[in-house]
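input
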Amino acid sequence: MSESYDVIVIGLGGMGSAAAAHLATRGLRVLGLEQFGRLHKLGSSHGHSRIIREAYFEAPEYVPLVQRAYVLWRELEAATERDLLTITGGLTIGAPDSNFIEGALESAKLHGLPYELLDYQAAEQRFPGLALGDGLMAVHEPNAGFLRPEDCIDAHLTVAERHGAELRFETGPARWAADGDGVSVTTADGTYHADRLVIAAGPWSAEVIPDLALPLAVERIVNIHVEPTQPELYGADRFPVYLFQVPEGQYYGFPALPGQGVKIGRHEG
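output
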C-alpha cells in the first residue's frame, strides 16, 4: 500500500490528536498513525484529570500559550458538544520565598492575571480541607481548573475525522525517512508519503527519531487516589486544584471527583 498526504501525524495522544484536528480543519489531507488503540493508557495523556492554570510559576512565557489554550478548549467543547474543561480555581502553595510563590506572583503580575495572596490562616478558612500551617502561603487564581484528557483526545480525533483525516490505530511502530521533497512512513500496514511529518510519539520519541540521539529519559508518574472521610470539604464546587512545595517535594492534586476520590501526584521526578 502506498498513499500520499499533505501531513502524516505519528502518535495520536494529547499532542498528536490536536495536531491532526487543527491540520484537517485547515483543509489539509491528514493521516494519523497510532501504534496502539484509540485512547490507550500507555502514553502521557490519560488519567481522567489534568490541571490547567494561568499563573505558571515555572516561567511567565507559558501564560499566553495557556490563555490561547483556554479559548481553543472552549471552541472544541462547542464543536463537539462535550464537557472538557471545569473551572475550580487553583492554589499554588509554598513558603513565601519559594519559587512556587515567587514564580506564580511574577506570572500573575506580568500578565495582569486575577489572583489573591493568602496567608495560611486565610487559606485554611476559605478551604477547610487544607491544613497548611505556619510558614506556608498560597496564590489563589480563579481561572484554574482541570481537563478530562481522554475526552479531550477523543474530541480532537472526532474533529479530525469530521474534516476528512484518516486515522489508523494498532499500526505498530512507525519508521520514516526523507523521500525527495517529503517523507515516507512505513508501518506494518504499508508505506505512506507526505509533504510534512509531525512526530508526537511521547515516550517513544527517541525510538522514532533515533538519529537525533535525544537525551530523553522517560519516567513513569504514579498518582494516588484517596477517599476523603469528609467528602463535603473536597467537592469540585468548593475545593480547587492545587500545587504545593514543601521540604518533602513538589506535589499537585485535584478536588474529589467521581470515581477518583482525591488524586495527588508528584510534580517533579
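quick obs: The chain is about 25% helix and 30% strand.
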